Description:
InterPro entries: 5hmC_binding, EVE_domain, PUA-like_sf, THYN1-like_EVE. By secondary structure, the protein is of the alpha+beta class. The protein is 27% helix and 36% strand.
Amino acid sequence: MNHWLVKSEPFKYSWDHLVTEGEGMWDGVRNYAARNNLMAMKVGDPVLFYHSNEGKEVVGLAKVSREHYPDPTTDEPGWVVVNLVPVEKFPNTVTLAQIKKDELLKQMDLVRLSRLSVVPVKREEFDHIVALAHDKK
C-alpha cells in the first residue's frame, strides 16, 4: 500500500465538494510526474487531501476507490484520473507552516516539489500528519 497527498484549490474542488459527491473524480492533472503518480495509485490507498493557495493545509483523509482510467475532460490521450472517496475530515488541519517547521516533515515532496498536485507520502510522514491532525492541543 502506498500513501499519497493530493492538492486542490478549495474554490475549484474542496474537501466539502468531495464529501457532498461521496466519490469524486480527480481530473485535470496535466503534469507528467503527477500523472505517473495517479497511475501508481491502487484501490484502498490512503490519500491526504490538501487545500492549496487558500488555507494551505491538510484537511482530511480520503482513499482511492477506482484506479486510473482516461481523463474524460480532455481529448488528449495519455491523461488519466482516479476516483477518491472521503474517509475523515480531520479535527485539526495541518498547515504548510507546521509541515515546514517539523523535522520529520520538512523534506516531504509537498515541500520539495511544491508544484505537483499529486505526490507520494512516506508512511512515517503520513502517520505523523494523521497524529498531528488528531492532537488534542
